[in-house]
Amino acid sequence: MSIPILKLHQVLISPLRGDLTDSDWEAFRREILQSVGQHGSLGVVLDVSTVEVLDSYATRTLQAIAAMLQLRGARTVITGIRPHVAFTMVHLGLDLEDTPTAPDLETGLDLIHRLLREGDDG
Amino acid sequence: MPMSLRPRKDQQPGLAAYHSLLTRHKEGLEARLLEIVRQLPGFSEALGNMSATALAERQALSDQLLEEALVQGEWDGYFSDLQGQGRMYARMGVPFASWFAVITAYRTAMLPKIQEEAADHAEFARLVDAMDQVNEIALATIGTAYLEAKEEIIQEQQQSILELSTPVLQVRDGLLILPVVGLVDTRRARQLTENLLTAIRQQRAGVAIMDVTGVPLVDSRVAQHFLQTAQAARLMGAEVLITGISAEIAQTMVSIGADLRGVRTLGNLQAGLEAAERLLAGD
Prior knowledge:
The structure holds 2 protein chains of 2 kinds. Chain A is of the alpha/beta class. In chain A, 49% of the residues lie in helices and 16% in strands. Chain A has helices at 22-39, 56-71, 83-91, 105-121, and strands at 6-8, 11-15, 43-47, 75-79, 101-102. Chain A starts with 5 loop residues before the first strand and ends with a helix. Chain B is α/β, with parallel strands linked by helices. Chain B has a 5-stranded mixed β-sheet with strand order 1-2-3-4-5, with helices on both faces. In chain B, helix 1 runs antiparallel to helix 4 (52-72). Chain B is rod-shaped, with a radius of gyration of 31 Å. The relative contact order of chain B is 0.08. Classes of the chains: A alpha/beta, B alpha/beta. Chain A binds chain B through residues 79, 81-87, 89-91, 95-96, 100-104, 106-108, 110-111, 114, and chain B through 193-194, 197-198, 200-201, 204-206, 228-229, 231-238, 262, 283.
């Protein structure tokens, strides 16, 4: 099951589905890391608005992907975490640490552009 | 109609005989009952709202259904009519005790008639038995309908209290305020969380202020719940500011070792609003 990686100028967008297996996550991690290099992207938006459950593996992987992308020079924003998904994560003690989040794709794109601008200034 | 209330086949002739007695004394009985009912609390207001024609129609329908039940043994129509009436009068606020007064009045009026007309002891017993049965069915059915109607009312009220007590207000684009007032138990805390997180998603809020000035104290579970709500909101991409934490709540939070990472707290709502404006302006 491959996950689409869409390119929008300097940013890559991936809508993640809810039914991903551990190996799907593995494959996606490799692919997104490669794509960032190929397109010279500066930002990645991972949208999880259709995901009903984010377990510890998925959460760790999202966090790891963000850290790896950072090493390759791209910022990551996670968008569309649903209310009950968010609350379940907190209950399970899961956290995305410093990975920025946004309520939906649109604000997520705004946020990543802002982060990129701030990066330029600094 | 529940089986426990339904009369046995062999009781039906007695009921039919009772009905014929009722019909013969209908006029006097109705006038007398109406007079009594008008003096009962709740009933007079309820009946006062009905026109004479409506009242007569109502009475004709009841008579017809009663005849079907007593003479032909078709109880279902009579039963559901009683249920409907019970529910209606319960919602009108007629006290249930008034129904006992009605039934007693009925009995007092009917007993002499039975005495006059019964040929022997056996017939007397049969008619009294039939009368009691009709009255019991009426009281049991109306009583059940009362309970159901009252329960419905209680549930509606609980629901509206729950909704009233957890409003999420949008102050301006991207900024929500959740004023929490009064005691918060686990159930209400859950409701608060759900409302806030749903509102954040719907309004695409960037900042939400949870003002707990009106909350005197909380137990450790609810305190934990507040913090978890703030963290969950952050995962959704919104910053939550908690304002107006009382001295007691502050002590609870620290003594349970609550994880305060990612949660900004400010002294009062004004400071919260200013901080929120700054956060939103930074966008």
